[in-house]
């Protein structure tokens, strides 16, 4: 018998069996696709959260059509309006009065009518003015009412209007067509001006007294990161007239010297009477200001994924997570805001919202030294930027589009401009390892929900977060990044900052951020309590001849608004909290504590003629009675007329009682920024983060996070490698799956 064919067949059979076994084993080891397990939640019925919802695109369009047809005056599109014409500056939702909303949410009352707030510039009138109209009911408007006098005590003068994009464009045209040509030799030989290689940055406010609209414009090389490329030329433009042909140059600054106008500068240059500091022409990418990475890509940075899908849910404008629920929105002027914030089904706060972001600059150049930016006037919501998955937010976050109508008659969608994600913070929320007496480990991962938006206002980017923790704490936080603003380095510039490059002075400036926190702790009526410590001397009871210094608890009720207004750097009680009329199991008033994280610079002196416009920044914390007529701590009209502020927060504090009242906490946090070489090319968020925490203080009978399903506990006697004992032991099985990473998309360069 010939064995060769048999051996060949046997070898082939064994090879086939081996290959099949390898395939099966490999298949078994291949990770499965992660499966989504829907989170458990109790949703509000009948879309109640929509009472706070931002306007839809259709609602915005309906408001515009209504205004065009019912005001009896022509309305020009804001993107091409002259100052002497009428236009719609912006449209936003008009949030109903709190009493109406609570009747609807809590007592089965009627749903408040849905309304919009429209801000109009009436330049084509005998007495030009700014008018605010409430339009409703939506979605089919049938009425409007003028609320300007009701809100501000009178008409709003036209010179206070926030500057539209078209006005900046018109000023740019004025500089290009009339101003720069009056100094041809200087512009060509020193600036190498070709009509497109210079960019301008506005200073604000615009002058020294009410009625002024006179603005310094600082010139930079028009390259990537142009904020770091000053050329030494600044022009003061008087654009107060509604007739563009009457605009004029009031002053010119170049390299430390002031001139009457560009004609005088040209004459001095031609005669060799000025000190020329010619700036090296930067490449289009900005060279040192370029954010292009200087190193090739290497190993991928860590990514976060959810093995069983998101543990939160988003329904319309409402979010649910681990006992938390809240409604969210985006104001055109003030940006991110929350409403009806509940934990374990009970309302903790009615509203938490950003109010303002402000910076005060120093410099030895006129544009820098006169700058006090109030970013709400430019629009913290309007300039909310699209988010880049994987950098701005975790790649697998939930991304939400936002809408706004400003400087246009049509709504603008900003895709993926708000993100929601659960974040494992990589540390325990609480833990204990017991190595005395009984041996055990107990802990809880600190996993929190984050709601985020990022505002880019000119050179700065503000990362706004609201963070929800499993122990009932809530954090409001802002991180600053972007480019530092700069001045041309000359003379005694080092008194006002650090030199960052050959001609670049990083100018000293402050950052202040204000929040409105309308806490409703176990009901609308609360009081303000202060707890702190003091040392007392006591004789040791067991040894009376000896003394002990022991800390004791101090308690105080803050009865009035004046007592509850804490100046910026003054000593404040370390435990300050809103106290309810009810008590917990242990007889303590239920409360929520306010804890502020801030390293603010100094506030502008109160003697300043414009201080009242930003008087909210006097206080690290001020608690006042809540009033519908005091909805915000500032006004978008304060930027261009801070000398006669439309809203002065200092007037809110008038010694009224705050015991057993509906209260609002106005919180200010900030930091001092002295730009340094590591701010090139870009300021980092590390160390530039401020905000506040709201923490339960005797609100519960014990820490509510003990009921979290994420808890871990095992003893020495238990088999802590078993899934039923220790959920961490299950991770090789429950977390060994492939997340679905969708293709990368970014919509930030469309429809610019």
Automatic annotation (TrEMBL):
It comes from the Eukaryota. The active site is at 375 (proton acceptor), 460 (schiff-base intermediate with substrate). Residues 304-706 form the Copper amine oxidase catalytic domain. Topaquinone (TPQ) is generated by copper-dependent autoxidation of a specific tyrosyl residue. Its EC number is 1.4.3.-. Residues 161-256 form the Copper amine oxidase N3-terminal domain. Its cofactor is Cu cation. One of its GO terms (biological process) is amine metabolic process. GO terms for cellular component: plasma membrane. Contains 1 topaquinone per subunit. Keywords: Copper, Metal-binding, Oxidoreductase, TPQ. GO terms for molecular function: copper ion binding; primary methylamine oxidase activity; quinone binding. Gene3D superfamilies: 3.10.450.40, Copper amine oxidase, catalytic domain. The modification 2',4',5'-topaquinone is found at residue 460. Residues 75-143 form the Copper amine oxidase N2-terminal domain. Belongs to the copper/topaquinone oxidase family. This is Amine oxidase. It comes from Loxia leucoptera (White-winged crossbill). The gene is Aoc3_0.
